[in-house]
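Structure (tokenized):
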């Protein structure tokens, strides 16, 4: 398994896994609920936990989807076993400088 993007600064590490789907959320027809793609979230969690060998919590992860026209798009942050995991959307229907700004904000926030 190989991460899409790994950024490091000092002891901190940010792992970003990117996804592109026509629907960034999944719908459970039985319970009529909208949730994250659990397999993608588990994949990112695995990357983060394997990278955080000292269990310091200095490794964070972002599951980054392209923004769709869905009513609900990912914008969530979780604390999972001492590591921050975020599920976010990137709006590619913007000018390049705005996309860059979204990415810069993502890195600064984490």
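Design, position by position:
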């Amino acid at each position: 398994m190989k991460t899409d993007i790994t950024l490091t600064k000092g002891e901190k590490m940010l792992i970003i896994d990117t996804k592109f789907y026509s629907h960034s959320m999944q719908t459970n027809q039985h319970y009529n609920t909208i949730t994250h793609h659990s397999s993608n979230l588990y994949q990112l969690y695995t990357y983060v936990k394997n990278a955080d060998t000292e269990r310091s919590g200095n490794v964070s992860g972002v599951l980054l989807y392209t923004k769709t026209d869905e009513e609900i798009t990912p914008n969530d942050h979780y604390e999972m076993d001492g590591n921050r995991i975020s599920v976010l959307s990137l709006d590619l229907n913007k000018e390049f400088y705005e996309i860059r700004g979204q990415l810069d904000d993502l890195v600064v926030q984490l």
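Reviewer-requested clarification: The two ends are 23 Å apart (CA to CA). Helices lie at 38-51, 96-109.
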